[in-house]
Amino acid sequence: MPKEAPLNSGAPETPVGSHQRVSGMQAKLHRWAAADHGRRFDDLFNLVCDPATLLVAFERVAGNKGAKTPGVDGLTAVNVEHEIGPHGFLEDLRHVLKSGEFRPLPVRERKIPKLGGSGKVRKLGVPTIADRVVQAALKLVLEPIYEADFKPVSYGFRPLRRAHDAIAEIHFYGTHGYRWVLDADIEACFDSIDHTALMDRVRGRVKDKRVLRLVKAFLKAGVLTEDNNREDTLTGTPQGGILSPLLANIALSALDEHLTRPWEPDGEMATSHLRRRRRATGRPNWRIVRYADDFVVLTDGERDDVETLREDIAEVLQPLGLRLSEAKTRVVHMSDGFDFLGFRIQWRRKRGTDKWHVYTFIADRPIRQLKDKIRALTNRTSQQNPRDVLIRLNQIMRGWANYFKHAVCKATLSSLASFTWHRVISWWMALHRWKWKEVRRRLTDHTGRWQRPSADGIELFDLQAVTVTRYRYRGNRIPNPWTRLNHA
Fold first, then answer.
1. Smallest Cα–Cα separation from 330: which of 310, 314, 358?
2. Are residues 100 and 217 in contact, defined by beta-carbon separation less than 8 angstroms?
3. Which residues have C-beta within 8 Å of that of residue 483, sequence separation ≥ 6?
4. Residue-wise burial string across 195-225, b where 16 or more C-beta atoms lie within 10 A, e elsewhere
5. Sequence-distant contacts of 59-67: CB under 8 A, at least 24 apart
6. What domain of life is recorded for the organism (predicted)?
7. pTM higher than 0.70 for the full model?
8. Rounded to the nearest 5 degrees, what angle is found at the Cα of 59, between the Cα atoms of 33 and 191?
9. Span 397-442, pLDDT tens digits
10. How far apart are CA 389 and CA 342, in angstroms?
């Protein structure tokens, strides 16, 4: 269907070109939202219920790795595809939505251990498959509207933006003199967002009462705990829901707007000249970099300036029902270093010179976590199939290396490669009752060179062979997904 087709025109029973239709709808919504920042959108409910939107939403839900996890009704995307059929399921769902009878069911609570071995758990909410599809449809319609308002300093759960962009921005401003840092942590952010404050921000762009009722219904859906007790959700947006990251960004954009207001045209920090003049008069400049509920604020002033900003931020968060964690929020100088999104960022002297630079290393915790996973897979008493273990090890190490390969990490990767090799060989020696002489015979070629351990054609991935490259700071050059063809 051409992009200029009417947004709310009737669609055939089996949507043709659903992705193109949704892509065109999103592009129009984003264009209208960007052209008029005060515009409130009405008649969005018909877009949510459009067969094309629901079909694309279902495909996204079914393609998610949680598609096999059931909600409180025990139904999964796999059940829908093989037993009910997506067409009939979506037709019934659309009818219930249009009639106003749709009511979200409570999310099923699942507790998973937090990373780092602290012993703490993170609560996730697993919605039913029908609720997930409706949330995905809402996200398809609402995201292009709110993306027109989101500030470029926010990187988490936004299209075409990565954690590496956030790290690169910190690196950029640290290099340009922003060396005092507020390393902030919001206490139980997803569980504490005030519903009234959040809905007020949603209403700033959405006028359609049916869509507002849907969003509020998901916020108030409740939780079915692991003990089968029903609990009301008076605050927060449960982690695990497709809509939750977007709602959290809508709420936390209040913080972005407050701290970036001086950077707007005609603001006190709008140009490099104005920022230099502020520094000449002893006043600080600052910059926030946020990834979901994790953020840092960098300033080119002094420690006292960061403390003042900390109090200011606490006042901005308070109406949202949020507060900074006293234990985890700290003021630090970049020469001491701080951890953010798994990286260690530090301003230090380059070895052998008198020049100082901002460096990005891998933090200690991700290294410990990777080693723990390798140890768990290569326990000396394990009787698992070596081929299956190598496949899983390679998956873990490739994903880990692709994320961290932009840090200063050549020595770290070499050390981890050696660690993994010794873990695998020690396990195989116990498994096959090999002596060291047997290991040498099996893993060296006719020239005496060591070969990579392999089992049934699967070779152990070599972390040391990963190419370490610097991630280039994209700044304002991050592309806009809504201008791309068929991005839905």
1. 310
2. no
3. 27
4. bebbbebbeebbebebbbebbeebbebbbbe
5. 60/136, 60/242, 61/129, 61/132, 61/133, 61/136, 61/242, 62/86, 66/126, 66/240
6. Bacteria
7. yes
8. 65
9. 999 999 999 999 999 999 999 999 999 999 999 999 999 999 999 9
10. 25
